[in-house]
Amino acid sequence: MEKSAKEIGSGGASMFNEEDTKEIDGLRVCEDHVEVTCGCTSHQYGDAVGTLRVFPNGDLEINCECTPGCDEDKLTPAAFEKHSGRETARKWKNNIWVISDGEKVPLVKTVLLKYYNQTTKHSNGRSQNIRGHRDEFLPCTKCGKMRRFRLHKKEECRVYHDALANANWKCSDAPNERAACGDEEERASRRVYRGCSRSQTCRGCTSCVCFGCETCRFSDCSCQTCNDFTKNAKSQCP
Q1: What is the CA radius of gyration of the chain?
Q2: Coil, strand, or helix at residue 97?
Q3: pTM of the full predicted structure?
Q4: Which residue has the higher pLDDT, 146 or 176?
Q5: Contact 101/41 with Cβ under 8 angstroms?
């Protein structure tokens, strides 16, 4: 149920007090997090709007609502900034905004980064939101269009893993009908953004390329890469 900022101190996640948030427009309190409409502005594409979720453990997630058909969810702020087409990326604290007292205000000037900053400080400056898997692409064997695979979660890694092993993979094989051969292919200029935390146009580095971990390797898979990883993992156990 949506609550006003004045109710934050007595319910929901109890993360912020009234004085902290009284000027932030549309702040909503859920059972375990606070959420608010946010956005990022590109000079070329205009405003990309989303919903920012702030968790007490410091995690930040953004569900993008830039177009009615956009299915980007649980993006890190850096990934949302890149998805918006912002020209000066890698400054998401300054480039992502919320509406406060009717004006666009950068996140860095609000209290919403309180828990994120605390978590980063306690981890010696290492962000907890950096992931070690970049987005990957596969062509449909029917229409030839390149389709993006996001590897944020273990389930998504498995979808890509199985698709890569399928020599006849087609758009219709994508889970939840996320793509169809009749859908437009992602622009080549967008495909260069693959989710690296080091550089928005990185072609592959240790920050975004993983050669095997418990998130992208599967003990119930009989392929060589998974078998080798499972055997190596067992041999290293005490």
Answers
A1: 20
A2: strand
A3: 0.49
A4: 146
A5: no
